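Predicting holo structure, guanosine-5'-monophosphate bound.
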Amino acid sequence: MAKKGILLVISGFSGAGKGTVVNRLREKYDEYALSISMTSRAPRPGDVEGVNYFFVTREKFEKTIAENGLLEYAEYCGNYYGTPRAFVEEQLNAGKNVILEIEIQGATNIKKAFPESLLIFLTPPSASELEKRLKGRGTETEEVIRKRLKRAAEESAGMDSYDFIIVNDDLEECVEEVHRTIELAHNQPLRCADFVADIKEQLKKYN
Ligand code: ADP
Ligand code: 5GP
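Done. C-alpha cells:
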C-alpha cells in the first residue's frame, strides 16, 4: 500500500519536551520532515536561523500573512508564530509525514483547514516536572518561565480537542509511542481509501 504523508501537529506546554522528542524521532526514522516556523520573537541563546525558526520582524511577518504565505499563524506571549505554506505542501506530496510543532490556536486552525491532520498533545507526567524542565533548560528568565507556566494552565483547557495525549516521561518510550501512533494512523480508512476501493472492486465478482 502506498503511504501518503500525514500532516502531524505536535503541541504541548512550553518545556514539555516537544523539541527533544521531535529531534529524536527524526534521528531514528527518515520518513519525517519538520516544518520550520517563522516568528517575530527574538532568537534565544543557541537558536539558529533556518534551523529553529526563520526569525523576522513583525512587519515582514505581516507582509507574509497578506501574501497568503502561511498555512496558519498565531500570537503567543506577544510574538507572532506561523507555518510557511510551500515547504509543507512539497513534503506531503513527496510522501513525508510533516511535523508542525505549534501551539493550540494554530493546531485548531490546522484541524479546521485539514480535517485529516493528526493532532498529538505531548505532556510531562506532572505540573511539577514541567516547572523543573523549564527551569532546567535555563534559557528563559524567571519572569518568562512564570508567563509560560501561566500559559500552560490556560492551554490545559484545550487538551481535550487533540486526537491523542502522549506522556513524555521516559524519552525513548515517548518517541516510540509517537511513532507507533503515526504508523497506525496510516491504516485509518481515509488514508488508505485507494486500497479499500480496490479490494471492494475485486470482491464484487463474488457478489
Ligand atoms: P519544548 O520544546 O516542549 O519547549 P524542550 O524539548 O526544550 O521542550 O525540553 C524542555 C527541557 O526538558 C529540556 O531541558 C529537555 O532536555 C528536557 N526534557 C525533554 N524530554 C525529557 C524527558 N523525557 N525527561 C527529562 N527531561 C526531558
Ligand atoms: P517558543 O518561543 O518556545 O519557541 O515557542 C512558543 C510556542 O509557539 C510553542 O508552543 C510553539 O509550539 C509555538 N509555535 C512555534 N511555531 C509555531 C507556528 O508556526 N505556529 C503556531 N501557531 N505556533 C507555533
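Strands lie at 7-11, 32-34, 37-39, 53-55, 70-76, 79-84, 97-101, 118-123, 164-167.
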